[in-house]
Design a protein that fits this description.
Number of helices: 13
Structural class: alpha/beta
Strand content: 15-25%
Radius of gyration: 24 Å
CATH class of the largest domain: Alpha Beta
Length: about 450
């Protein structure tokens, strides 16, 4: 990532020489001496970037008041975003770019799109990936439509443990396409409880981990449904420690990519991940960048596939993914490149370990218990007698969790949902537990 760090000492020397100055001090010589700020240590704590940012946020809260600590989940999570991500996505050549109608001129854009597709394939265990969609929910809906176009059938098995907001989007698309969504219950462990396979099935949807944070067992599912599509809706950070869905015969892997270098942003913008098998390349929505060589054998990048109706496919187009929604995919590309496989694994493990620690501490409190016994990643449901009151106490203590009303939409009454990421500190975990006890 060194190419993204600007202005080396040599660069600065060359720029100063070009304007006839000897030093940076000379550059600011017109500022009155009495108001100039001289270079001196800032008094920041030594440590990693995340620690420095926490310190600065703490200073800011002295003036603005304490904000809510997000233990929120349900599809959008508060992960740390390295500064290099914001730097790159803010570059004008990326930030102000529109859909490249002469794409081969945009070699930089095509290069990162190709790298993004490659890393998504590595994470999911699939053969091809498009260069992003608007969000995870519409990516899932497009995957179901793709399954219908490919294998026929009008029935889709959808788990009750699927994020209810994602299901609502899927239901809207299914209604328009004349598809029937059939609910699949979950067990006491919180896992998919698939029983009979209906006729005219075009797809089985599985969320991994599911809405309650429980890790699903994907083995044998594809064999049970035959030619119907196995569509897995993933949290990509969890794939750093879980076996990829491609290993279990998944036909399509989709998911919400907000966790990869994008902020929570009050619910958006988001990033839709979409990957599939090579044999379905021409049936998938979106666009793909490819790597080739020119007439002189030099490497270059091209827009290999475009499925929009404005291009040559016309009425045979599979989607209208356009504009600059791919900026969020650029953020994911820089994030994944900056962390690397081991860094992403550390984020996943830290999130999971802190989630399990908090879950143990909560379940030891009188009146609180985990809703499910199945293994979970970084999110879990807590059952208690009065969840709304518990959530209110947490909010008074400056802590936000997912509303019991949304959890009830997935069929779980009397519970709230807690998500823990690598950003949550021991002090914050303790504050959470004390709030449930009734302390402040």
């Amino acid at each position: 990532m060194t190419e993204y760090i600007p202005h080396t000492p040599e660069d600065i020397k060359k720029m100063l020489s070009a304007i006839g100055l000897q030093s940076l001090e000379a550059l600011f010589s017109d500022i009155p001496e009495e108001v100039r700020r001289r270079y001196r240590p800032l008094g920041l704590p030594r440590g990693d970037e995340a620690g420095v940012r926490r310190h600065l946020e703490g200073l800011a809260e002295r003036s603005t008041g304490r904000g809510l600590i997000p233990f929120l989940g349900g599809g959008i999570y508060d992960h740390f975003v390295p500064a290099v991500v914001d730097y790159v996505v803010s570059l004008p050549e990326f930030y102000t770019a529109y859909t490249p109608y002469q794409p081969e001129v945009s070699q930089g854009t095509l290069t990162w799109m190709f790298e993004y597709q490659t890393m998504i394939c590595e994470l999911t265990g699939m053969e091809v990936a498009n260069s992003s969609m608007y969000d995870g929910a519409t990516a899932l809906a497009e995957a179901v439509l793709m399954a219908h176009r490919t294998v026929g059938g009008r029935r889709v098995l959808v788990p009750r443990s699927l994020n209810p907001q994602v299901r609502e989007v899927l239901a809207t698309y299914a209604w328009g396409a004349g598809l029937e969504l059939l609910d699949v219950p979950y067990s006491e462990e919180g896992k998919l409880a698939l029983e009979g396979i209906p006729d005219e099935l075009c797809a089985l949807v599985v969320q991994q981990p599911n809405f309650f944070g429980v890790i699903e067992d994907l083995s044998g599912l594809k064999e049970r449904i035959g030619k119907a599509f196995l569509i897995v809706y993933v949290n990509p950070i969890a794939l750093a420690v879980l076996e990829p869905p491609g290993s279990f015969g998944a036909d399509v892997v989709v998911g919400e990519g907000q966790v990869l270098g994008n902020p929570m942003g009050f619910g958006g913008p988001l990033l839709g991940i979409f990957a599939t098998r090579g044999e379905y390349l021409r049936r998938m929505p979106g666009r793909l960048a490819g790597r080739t060589v020119d007439a002189e054998g030099r490497p270059g990048y091209v827009m290999a596939f475009q499925t929009r109706e404005q291009h040559i496919r016309r009425e045979r187009a599979t989607s209208n993914i356009c504009t600059n929604s791919a900026l969020c995919a650029l953020a994911a590309t820089v994030y994944l490149a900056a962390l690397g496989p081991e860094g992403l694994r550390q984020v996943a493990l830290a999130s999971m370990e802190r989630a399990h620690e908090l879950a143990d501490r909560i379940s030891s409190l009188p009146g609180y218990e985990l809703a499910f016994s199945g293994p979970f990643f970084n999110e879990f449901a807590v059952r208690c007698a009065h969840p709304e009151e518990a959530v209110a106490r947490l909010r008074e203590a400056g802590i936000a969790v997912l509303s019991p009303k949304l959890v009830a939409k997935a069929g779980l009454e009397g519970a709230f949902l807690v998500a823990v990421t690598e950003k949550r500190t021991q002090e914050e975990l303790s504050r959470f537990v004390e709030a449930l006890k009734g302390g402040r």
